[in-house]
Design goal:
It contains 15 helices and nine strands. It is an alpha/beta fold and 434 residues long. The protein folds into two domains: 283 residues, Rossmann fold (3-Layer(aba) Sandwich); 82 residues, no CATH class. It has a nine-stranded mixed beta sheet, sandwiched between helices. β8, α13 and β9 form a beta-alpha-beta unit. α5 packs across α6 and α7 packs across α8.
Length: 434
């Protein structure tokens, strides 16, 4: 205050302006939206923190063993966690986030286990869809077991608003990135003898954007973490285009909710858009048929939405009504990462039969990162889908990560990338290749 007054001393108009500014009331922080209307409920009291939160993000609040039916097969310890993080939307206050720690069933190396920070794919937006609560699908169990078997501890976030009270900001990289990084900080704080500060961020689908968001944020948000690199499969990410680089726009079925699969579209409206516009009632933008889908989104998970959509033969156009631009127009601006220049090497795995995330969009993301000067190793897998490429990509991503941990150089592929055509037919004999 003294420095400000000294600058305006002797200037009557400036002093009056300052005094006037001091009398303007400051708006109170927005009250977080919680309750059934944003998918809260159905989980245990473990997920609800009733005490004051610490001032710092990345503090472990409590832990408990996972129940037997939720154990990761290849882990010696399965720990459910609750930790402090930062709200990635709005006022950036402290929030609680849940997650899991898995430790390898092996002899611990000197200095502890290096860490795979796992960012999961889409499960839903309701609390009951938190992987630490509902468990993991078989594809992901096998994938995480592979990392555990090669001597990596897995620190996995549920993301803000999954499990814990409040909205889940679906696909918003900032909140997801905070959740990923704070899960690791909390784990290192609570288990310093078992975990080593060598971190590789690994994400699939929704988690690919979370992983890249975490990598982008790490140098400024969590500079104490030694993030070595990132593995991203089934890329669902967009970067702000670099000057002079022209890429084809994303097809409308990936941007217009009325053209999307209703299962994903309702998550976008009720998760992403509602997080950006907490004062808007999502129910005002759906039809009678859409109300059934919205209720399912707030009480169940992605596989239930797929089943409902298929059973009722629903389309996005049948689910939504009114002018969606009121709620959806700023989604892309908040989804888009501001820079494609990543501070660490990036592994990208793309199934050439990936019709969910699309192949052209993944090519665009790789071009964006390469153009910005990111060191990218891009691998493609013929006949493999969004799901099918995940475990097969380990044959390339595991050596990539092992080189990072041992301090060896990474060979990039930016000089050899080529545009992709439309998604290929899926190999019906490949596992998880639905």
């Amino acid at each position: 205050m003294k420095s400000h007054l000294s600058q305006t001393q002797g200037t009557r108009a400036g002093l009056l302006a300052l005094l006037a500014a001091l009398t303007v009331p400051v708006a109170a922080p927005a009250v977080p939206v919680t309750g059934p209307s944003v998918g809260d409920g159905g989980v245990s009291d473990f997920y609800v923190w009733k005490e004051a939160l610490p001032a710092q993000a990345g503090v472990m609040l409590r832990e408990e063993p996972l129940p037997k039916e939720r154990l990761q097969p290849g882990a010696s310890q399965n720990i459910r966690t609750l930790y402090s993080s930062t709200d990635g939307v709005g006022d950036h206050d402290r929030v609680t986030v849940s997650g899991t720690i898995y430790l390898p069933n092996k002899t611990m190396p000197k200095g502890g286990w290096p860490i795979v920070a796992w960012a999961h794919g889409t499960t839903g937006i309701a609390d009951v869809c938190a992987p630490s609560w509902q468990g993991r699908q078989q594809r992901d169990k096998e994938y995480l077991d592979a990392w555990l078997s090669h001597g990596f501890a897995v620190v996995a976030t549920d993301y803000q608003g999954l499990g814990t009270p409040g909205m889940h900001p679906y696909l918003l990289w900032r909140s997801e990135g905070y959740s990923v990084l704070d899960a690791v900080r909390a784990a290192l704080q609570r288990h310093p003898e078992q975990l080593r500060n060598q971190v590789v961020v690994v994400g699939q689908s929704q988690g690919s954007g979370a992983a890249l968001g975490a990598s982008f944020l790490a140098p400024t948000y969590a500079p104490q973490l030694k993030v070595l690199g990132t593995v991203a499969t089934g890329l669902v990410v967009t970067f702000h285009p670099a000057p002079g680089v022209k890429l084809p726009p994303k097809p409308k079925q990936y941007t217009d909710p009325t053209l999307m699969d209703p299962a994903y579209a309702i998550l976008r409206i009720a998760g992403t858009d509602r997080s950006l516009h907490p004062d808007i009632d999502t129910a005002a933008f759906v039809t009678e048929k859409g109300r059934t889908v919205l209720h399912a989104a707030l009480t169940s998970c992605l596989h239930d939405l797929f089943e409902l959509s298929a059973r009722e033969k629903l389309t996005g156009a049948q689910v939504f009504s009114g002018d969606l631009t009121t709620i959806d127009s700023d989604m892309e601006a908040n989804f888009e990462l501001p820079s494609a220049k990543m501070p660490v090497p990036i592994f990208v795995g793309t199934g050439l039969a990936d019709g969910e995330a699309g192949t052209a969009q993944q090519y665009n993301a790789v071009v964006g990162m390469c153009t910005a000067g990111t060191q990218v190793a891009w691998h493609t897998y013929p006949g493999l889908t969004h799901n099918g490429a995940v475990n097969v990509s380990l044959r390339d991503s595991l050596p990539f990560v092992q080189r990072l941990v041992s301090g060896q150089a990474i060979a990039g592929t930016c000089d050899h990338i080529e545009p992709l055509g439309p998604p290929q037919p899926a190999d019906k004999n490949a596992p998880f290749n639905d």
